[in-house]
């Protein structure tokens, strides 16, 4: 370090490194390509949950160093990086970042972040030269009853392909916003552990299933061990009753509760025998 | 089920269902009658409306659900 | 149904179902027996597997409510 | 049902189900025991594998559902 | 299940279900009674309407038609 | 159900389920532990193969009638 | 599943499910706690309504009356 190092840089580094020390969770995000206005919005959306700090990559690295963060973590600083400071755990932080992503129209040269599909159906567009442009852009459009309609679902750009100017224009005319705009989380650091975003994706459905399974298995154990709880006493009673009725029925124990079923069953059996004997016996008795 | 069928026969013939009559019917069929089961039957029938039980068979009939397959 | 009940009684007691035995059972129940119906019953039963007839009743028949699935 | 419950209690406690034991259990519960019902129970249970009887799903369901709604 | 059956027996005989009565019944069946399980049972039964619990069973799974009365 | 949950936790962590361990777990969760319920649990689980109990489909149906309340 | 069981225990005991409380419970069970799994659990449960999940379980899936035999 020379004496030429600007004072503001020193201040910036010490400000960042003290924020690093104060925060439970540090995130590194890529903000490349995010327009200033939208970055402002994101900052606002994160307020109370995380602070976003944009600075030069070199300064961020120095600050991480000074704060004593694991060397490993610094490698996630590249392109246009920014730091997130938060006290929310990495999983939730990741979720909040995902939830705050917005869609934007494509511009010429954008890369499709996922397959771009047009859907069959009417459009708001007036018939005219636009029809030819749509077709030229590979969109299956036609005139139907004075409206421009899309004939069928079609993937017009696959994930990873570049979007040309014409298609970008047509997509925006159709109101399709294929571009995802938002902070791109590169990694978080929490309690000395580094998480990459893939590790932070949580399948809530899966947890819900686990909750259900835990509940059911616990009920089963409680019933099977006949250990009564508030939740299972009713079921144990039912099981006792049901099994007793079954036994009574099977063994033809002539008790009122069971006899009813036995009679009903006897009637059914006799009835089905009667019906297999022909109409004579089906219509039966009393004459 | 023979005890129950004896009772149902008597019921359907509109005869009284008594220990005596049930025993007679079973006897005539060559069944070795277990008196205690006859008694139990009669005593259980005391709390059962045969007509109702029969009807429940006709209404909700067989079903035997799940079992299929 | 008393003729059918008589048959079921005999069947469930594992006795032979003959004109004779059916008549006996009905008699003992105080039923005025119609010989031609007894004959008709026996002849109708000829070739019927009672067990099967009963079981087919239990599985499929009537409503077979929505219980499944 | 108390007679059947007594039997089930003994069964699930892995005790022998006899006239004696059923009577004992009912007595201790303060039930005025009807000997013929006890006899009938024992005789009905004779030769029945309780575990199997309970499991044989075929039976119970038969009647049940319909009530559903 | 013997603890539950003891309770069911008492219920069906219209007797009070208490630690005392449950223990008595189990004792009489020759069961070596675990006091804590009796307590747990009684405490779980607290506030439970057995009749209602039984009926809810009758609607759904196995048993017999809700004919009760 | 917290007592049973404690047992399931220990089971799924492959730890022994003892009065001690169950109490510890409940304690740590801030539950005011009722010793007799712990004892009852341990005694109820005695001889129960948890894996098997969970798998035994037999139970599941019983659970059905959410009617409870 | 021990992490889920820890959460369920806390839920059933009406305690807050936090990183702290889950860790405590697991610790007390002798489980070597993986902090990131605790964090994942807490964050996932943030979006899961346990009560609702349980109720939906009781009505539908549990049943599995496929017991057939």
CATH superfamily of the largest domain in chain A: Ribosomal protein L10, N-terminal RNA-binding domain
Overall body shape of chain A: flat
Using DSSP, what is the number of strands of chain B?
Answer: 0
CATH class division of chain B: Mainly Alpha
Compute the average pLDDT of chain B: 80
The shape of chain B, in one word, is globular
Largest interface, Cβ cutoff 8 Å: B-C, 28 and 30 residues
Strand content of chain A: 15-25%
- Specify the structural class of chain B: mainly alpha
Task: Walk me through what this model shows.
Chain A: GO terms for molecular function: large ribosomal subunit rRNA binding; structural constituent of ribosome. Chain A: This is Large ribosomal subunit protein uL10. The complex is a heteroheptamer, with 1 copy of chain A (287 residues) and 6 copies of chain B (69 residues). Chain A has a 5-stranded antiparallel beta sheet with strand order 2-3-1-11-12, sandwiched between helices. Chain A folds into 3 domains: 7-101 and 182-202, 2-Layer Sandwich (Alpha-Beta Plaits); 116-175, Alpha-Beta Complex (Molybdopterin biosynthesis moea protein, domain 2), CATH 3.90.105.20; 206-283, no CATH class. Chain A is flat. Chain A is α+β, with helices and mostly antiparallel strands. Helices cover 48% and strands 17% of the residues of chain A. Chain A has helices at 7-22, 36-46, 57-66, 71-74, 90-99, 129-136, 165-173, 197-200, 204-224, 233-250, 256-276, 279-283; strands at 25-30, 50-54, 81-86, 102-104, 116-118, 121-122, 141-144, 147-150, 154-157, 179-181, 184-190, 193-195. Chain B is an all-alpha fold and 69 residues long. Chain B has one domain (2-59): Arc Repressor Mutant, subunit A (Orthogonal Bundle), CATH 1.10.10.1410. Chain B is 61% helix and 0% strand. Chain B has 4 helices and no strands. Chain B has helices at 2-12, 19-28, 35-45, 50-59. In chain B, helix 1 (2-12) packs across helix 2. The two termini of chain B are 27 Å apart. Chains A and B meet through helix 11 of A and helix 1, helix 3 and helix 4 of B.
């Amino acid at each position: 370090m020379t004496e030429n190092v600007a004072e503001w840089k020193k201040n910036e580094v010490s400000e960042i490194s003290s924020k690093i020390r104060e925060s439970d969770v540090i995130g590194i995000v890529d903000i490349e390509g995010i327009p200033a206005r939208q970055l402002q919005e994101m900052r606002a959306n994160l307020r109370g949950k995380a602070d976003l700090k944009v600075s030069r990559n070199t300064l961020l690295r120095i600050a991480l160093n000074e704060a004593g963060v694991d060397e490993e973590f610094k490698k996630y600083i590249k392109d246009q990086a920014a730091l997130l400071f938060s006290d929310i755990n990495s999983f939730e932080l990741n979720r909040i970042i995902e939830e705050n992503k917005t869609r934007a129209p494509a511009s010429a040269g954008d890369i499709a972040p996922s397959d771009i599909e047009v859907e069959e159906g009417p459009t708001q567009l007036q018939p005219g030269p636009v029809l030819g442009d749509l077709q030229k852009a590979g969109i299956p459009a036609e005139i139907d009853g004075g409206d421009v309609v899309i004939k069928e679902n079609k993937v017009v750009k696959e994930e990873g392909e570049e979007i040309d100017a014409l298609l970008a224009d047509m997509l925006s005319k159709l109101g399709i916003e294929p571009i995802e705009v938002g902070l791109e989380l590169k990694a978080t650091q929490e309690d000395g552990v580094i998480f990459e975003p893939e590790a932070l994706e949580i399948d809530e459905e899966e947890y819900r299933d686990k909750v259900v399974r835990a509940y059911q298995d616990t009920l089963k154990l409680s019933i099977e061990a006949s250990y009564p709880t508030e939740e299972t006493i009713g079921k144990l009673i039912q099981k006792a009753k049901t099994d007793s009725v079954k036994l009574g029925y099977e063994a033809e124990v002539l008790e009122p509760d069971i006899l009813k079923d036995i009679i009903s069953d006897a009637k059914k059996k006799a009835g089905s025998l009667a019906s297999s004997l022909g109409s004579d016996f089906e219509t039966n008795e009393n004459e | 089920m023979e005890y129950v069928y004896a009772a149902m026969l008597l019921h359907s013939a509109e005869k009284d269902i008594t220990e005596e009559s049930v025993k007679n019917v079973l006897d005539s069929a060559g069944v070795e009658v277990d008196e205690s089961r006859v008694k139990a039957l009669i005593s259980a029938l005391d709390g059962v409306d045969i007509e109702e039980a029969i009807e429940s068979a006709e209404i909700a009939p067989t079903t035997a659900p799940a079992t299929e397959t």
